[in-house]
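thread: overnight batch results

M.L. [08:02]
morning all. the overnight job finished for the chain we discussed friday. pasting input first so we're all looking at the same thing
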Amino acid sequence: MTKEVNYIDCPHDWIGTDDYSSHLPMLWLALNKTDGRSVVELGCGKGSTKMLAKECTIQHRTFSSYESNPVYAVKFSGVVTKISNYMDVHLWKPNVLFIDSAPGEQRKDLIELHKDNADVIIIHDTEEGAQNIYGIREVLNSFKYRLNYYPVGNPGTTALSNKIDITTWV
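M.L. [08:03]
and the structure it wrote out:
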């Protein structure tokens, strides 16, 4: 089941204002519609890492962030674990998995790797053009539940799950 929206009602701090934060409303929704356990970020950034870390602390959830780019890993040191390859990160049933890693072409492999492990997977940059560039269309279509968030003028974000009917969130 697939649902598409272009607006998610969320607190002001979580409103995405540019290409680098357009995923924030979907992340806020996932954090507030799922229960405890872990939240994992593959690919850190100025639009998500600090917000996720702060909200996970408030909600008493564990938060882990992994980054392969040494510049970003240093920029967010203390919050982010520097890795060499996202495919080598072994996760144990994260409640929410956020994928915004580079290279973007590897995202399809990460989604496939974790599709039965994570309760909800959120992927940034899923608008029509990016689906072709990153080659993710087929893997996005393979999930039982899919919620597309396409804010006007900014990159899209998609939530996927084979376990939770995320289309009921909005």
